[in-house]
Inverse folding.
């Protein structure tokens, strides 16, 4: 049991102070987020314009193919 605690303590000492990779300053702050949102909004606007330019196909014959409405399970 003593060896388990010793191994745990050694692992804790080794892992303390370990730093991750540095974050580039271009990815930190509010400005990059705003730029990404503007880019996404511009892409969404282009997609909406392309969708509006395409003609809408009207469904044909759906009312004719449906059975007549009748009450079910009434006395």
């Amino acid at each position: 049991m003593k060896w388990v605690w010793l191994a745990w303590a050694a692992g804790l000492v080794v892992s303390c102070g370990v730093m991750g990779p540095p974050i580039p300053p271009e990815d930190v702050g509010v400005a990059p987020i705003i730029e990404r949102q503007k880019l996404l909004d511009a892409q969404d606007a282009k997609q909406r314009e392309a969708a509006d330019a395409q003609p809408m196909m009207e469904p044909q014959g759906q009312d004719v193919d449906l059975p007549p409405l009748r009450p079910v399970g009434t006395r």
About this structure: The first helix runs from residue 2 to 15. The chain has a mean pLDDT of 78. The helical segments are 2-15, 31-53, 62-65. Residues 36 and 75 are 63 Å apart (CA to CA).
